[in-house]
Structure formats: C-alpha cells, structure tokens
Amino acid sequence: MQQVRHALSPVFVVFRRLFFLISVVGLCLFETEVFANNEAFRFNENANLALRRTAHLLLLQNGDSLSTIPPVQQIDANTFSVRMEHMFDYEQLPSLLKQSLQIQHIERGYNVTVLKCDNGEVQLGYNFLDLNREEGVACGGRRQQEGCYQLQVSFISENEEAKTASGNWWLLPFGSALAGLGFMVWNKTRPKTGTMPIQAPVVSFIKDSKTRFGSSVFDLVNQTLVSGDATHQLTFREAKLLALFAKSPNQVLERDFILKSVWEDEGVIVGRSVDVFVSRLRKMLANEPAVKITAVHGVGYKMEVLP
C-alpha cells in the first residue's frame, strides 16, 4: 500500500499543476475579453459624444440655438446616426466632425452619409480620405434642399477587435510558460495578510466645484479625480456618475435611478453601462481606503464613506 501511494503521488502533483496552468490561461483569455468589452463601451460613448457635438455646432452655424438634439442612434457596432430636423450647412460638416472626433481621441477611418428622413435615400456623403484631396470632399458645393436629414457616420472596423477567442491560440504556450513560472513562485511563497490604516473620512465641498471624500478630491467642472498620488482625467459620464455618488454617500442608489440620472439625457442607455463605469471608478479609487463602492444585489450601488 505504501508503494502504491508513492507511485500515485507524482501523478496527483502533475494533475494539480496542469489544473493550475489551465486555470491561469483561462483567466488570461477572460481578462482579454473583458478589456475588449470595456474598450467597445468607451468607443461607443466617445462616438456618441462626437456626433452630438457635431450636430450641436451645425445647428449653431445655421443660427439655431434652441432646437433639441435628438438621441444618437447606434445602428450597429460601428454605425451611429443623429436626426437633423432642419437643413444644415454641408460645407461645415467635414471640419466640424473631424474636430469632434479628435477631441474624443477617435482615430478610426469612417464614411459619412446624409440621408433623407422620409425615405432614407442618400443625398450627400464622403469618405474621411477625401479630407486630404485638393478638390475637397465628395458632393461639396452641391445645393441642399430644405428638409429633415439623417446624419450617419460609419466607422471602419478594426480587424484586431473582430478576432474571436479561437484566434488567440498563440496565447496558450505563452500563457503556460508564465503560469509555470507563477506556480513556482506561488509554491514557495504565501500571501501576506495585513490591514491598511483607515483614515477618518471627511466629506466636504471645496469652493463650488470640488468635493473631498477621504483623502481624494473630485473636481466636477474639470472632470478630474485626485486619489493618492494619481490624477485621473474622467470622461463626461464617469464624472457624472461619481458626482451622483458623492451627493448621496452611504445611500443605496437604485440601478434604474442611476441609468436615468447619468445616461437618459444623452440618448443612449445600455444595461451594462452602470457595471462598467462603476468598475472604472473602483479602479481609480483603489488607493483610497476611506471610500468603497459596493453592489447591493438586485438593487443597485452604494458609495460607502467609512467612519
């Protein structure tokens, strides 16, 4: 019996290590997928804001500062559209759209089409490469009739984002090598436990635009968060969500309330947006021991400011 145990012992060790390697590689692939999803959410948000800004400036160029800009519609993963109830100056569109995309750090190529609202017929349009042509963009200088138009921007899909998990087969040997090294380190070490000193939280307002909680300072106007030694530049919605939490510390905010308060006025509501943006704020506040954003199962989220 003793000999049988000695014979089986190496087999168990091999199976245990193999299981650990498979788990680590699986986590690597999962993290890659999560990162891709987060990038897709960020791109959708930036494209939405760029198109809304363009529509706003086109209306101002036409002397219209009162009309409401309808919600931006996302046709598919790469196509966005906004309804323009009144005629706009097509000659101003290329430069204004290019500027808006640069502000949102969007570098993808794109096609622009102007369609009639009633029948969807394409009236005008151009490709982003036309901006570098001496003769200007396609359809430039043509007369535009009075009426309602649909401004549509279709971005060119990035091949890297279109790859599936099966296309990442090359990660397996690389991940296995890293996992083996990690197993060796893990087998010789043990995680150290300890507690960070909790500072007494202070929630106060500095001037009119800044809020302090714990040792962090949130500037709503400039959309910045200083936490620990890091300064984070927030997007419009990240700042809006953090401001919502800061106004109601230690209170549970329902998911529907968060969606309506942060996303509804922008015209795009995605169910998972709350989870993605909360995850971003948690990472920014990772070094802030006095503040923690917790999920309340089936209800929503709460920003806890520890006593």
UniProtKB/TrEMBL annotation:
SUPFAM superfamilies per record: C-terminal effector domain of the bipartite response regulators
Keyword tags: DNA-binding
Pfam families linked: Trans_reg_C (PF00486)
Example GO biological process: regulation of DNA-templated transcription
Keyword DNA-binding in record: yes
Signal peptide residues on this chain, from the entry's feature table: none
Residues in OmpR/PhoB-type domain copies: 208-305
InterPro entries: OmpR/PhoB-type_DNA-bd (IPR001867), Sig_transdc_resp-reg_C-effctor (IPR016032), WH-like_DNA-bd_sf (IPR036388)
GO molecular function: DNA binding
DNA-binding annotation, residue ranges on this chain: 208-305
The name this protein goes by in its record: Winged helix-turn-helix domain-containing protein
Organism: Dyadobacter fanqingshengii
